[in-house]
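Forum: Protein Structure Q&A
Topic: Joint prediction for protein chains with partners

I've read a bunch of threads here and the consensus seems to be that you should model interacting components together rather than docking separate models afterwards. I'd like to see that in practice. Below is the full input, 663 residues plus whatever partners are listed. Could one of the regulars post the assembled result?
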Amino acid sequence: MAASKPDHYSILGVFRDATQEEIKRAYFEAAQRLHPDKNVAAGETELFLDIQQAYEVLSNPKRRSQYDATLPPEIEEVNRFIRHEILYSRPSLVRVGEDQLIYVLLEIGPREEQSTELPTPPLNICLVLDRSTSMQGEKMDILKATAIQLLRSLRPQDVLSVVAFSDRAEVIVPASISLDKKRQEASIQMMQPSGGTEIYYGLEAGMREIRRTIDPSRVNHLILLTDGNTYGDEQACLQLAEDAASQNVGITGMGIGNEWNDIFLDALASKTGGTSAYISKPKDIERFLVDKFKTLVNIYADEVLLEYQAQENVRVNYAFRLQPEGGHIEIAMPLRFGPILRDTPLHVMLEIVVGAQTLTGDDVLLLNGNLKASINSQTLPIPPIRLRLTRNVEETPSIEGPPTRILKALSRLTLYRMQERAQTAVNDGQYEAASRHLQNLATHLLSQGENSLAKTALLESENLERMHSWTATGSKDIKYSTRALLLGSGKEKK
Amino acid sequence: MIICSNCKHANMTGAMFCAECGAQLIGRDSLTTQTITTDGLGRGTRRITGELDQAVEGVDAWANLHLLDTGQVLPLSSRNEFTMGRVSEGQPIMPDIDLSPYQAYAAGVSRLHAVIKRIGGQVIFMDLGSANGTYINGKRLASNVEQVLHHGDVIALGKLRLQVLINSQ
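Posted by a regular:
Agreed with the consensus. Here's the joint model:
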């Protein structure tokens, strides 16, 4: 982008070779963000008009080609906002008559000069709190105290709403920039636990509050806290999470104690690129929530998407975010990678299976797509990053070892996946297999010096053999502890 | 294909860790063998309420309850009556012996399940109206009816089986 007025393509955040379809979609997205009905910020109406004008030109093929002729030749410029780095587990593929694996570690972070210059984004957060009967006592007391503490710590530009739900939902603190904190605190204090747990009502009411003050320049996020299982409305919840994702609203699920459904909460959060957390003791509620708020304030880009074209015989088999918050990434179109923080770049590990049929040529296209991010403090859409992952095919395997960062990250990821296999085996009723997986897991935990976790895994393994079930806390302990081990494992050693 | 040297699992070319056992397949460092034991780790094994904490293999215990599934021994001493059950949240009356560390919930133990007491030289056992029943040597007891226990009897609270070892001194 020169100092002069940006061209129509950069205004819409598309490439020059974008199809009509892509231009249309980019226009709709930008128009939604900047529509004058929604935005009152000064100067944004002008931006909206720019977008209109850009679309009018580019959507008409004749005018577009005329316009293209006036443009200076395109220089493949570096993205001004985001930098990225790609690491492969091996320099080349081998020509063999069978499927093979390759791992790719993506690092996506802010450009140094940008991360310090831009102001921290204002928050638009809704706390959706379970107030079912089981929350009674310590959990509820700590939750109330923490909610009030967070309310007090808000900056004037932040919005925090609170919704409580049981088998119905009620808005405790509506989303607004209100000054009457005393009254809000009193409403929080008055929450009384009763009733069952129906998460859908809570999420629905929470999303309604978030939409009141939704704004792309804010960090829009919903935090769900629950200690129980929801029954029968899982599908509706997941659907709602998808809608939330399309509006750039992130969801974090926090489970307290051991009776909640971690698989469901993980699925719900990963739809939006978010993650779930396990709070084993009520007294940790405060720490988890305060940390979460710190993370949210620190967000640079609130959602990184990878849109890619499906290839024949090459597929992304597994995706995992190593940092800022470790979490499984659902294999879907697009892949939702989650946020980039100012101080912590995003690390994603992809496992790609290359089919034997594709190995006939000189090189293989592993993945062809665009990385998209929306930066909160930046109103105009930023141009996507082209991501074209290819590898040569050689006759003999290379002798070069994998990069240490990949090796280290994978050694940790392997642990997490062994735990996943044990979970699957238990669900299928194969207790012996599950117990064997846990024993293997324990062996590797020991060799990596994680003695206490290794002991937990061993105890669980024995328990599975004997009782054919996890202990009350076992499966979650192991899952979230192995996940925590992954944090930062893809980092460069300093 | 890469055959794991540890478990002989066939992994896809390009794999770096065995999908079955997790062993590193390439550039592996030598793994050192370590031995650990799980006994005495005590995660939940000694979480017995009441005065039971101090007396481990109580010499002064008038009876010991041997958990047949897990092998632990719960000594009964310093008082003559113990209620048995499992502790759960929001419960008004706590049992003297909390069996929840031993999978009581899965085994169907009620919150207040049964009582064991010593009267004179006899050990008396009674079901407290439990949901899943109490058994002596496989025979179901009627609720709230006292039964005499003998050395070596196997009692069951729901599916949780315990052998009674009476100290006759």
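The interface with chain A takes residues 1, 12-17, 19-24, 26-27, 31-32, 34, 36, 38, 41, 43-44, 69-70, 89-90, 103, 105-106 of chain B (CB under 8 Å).
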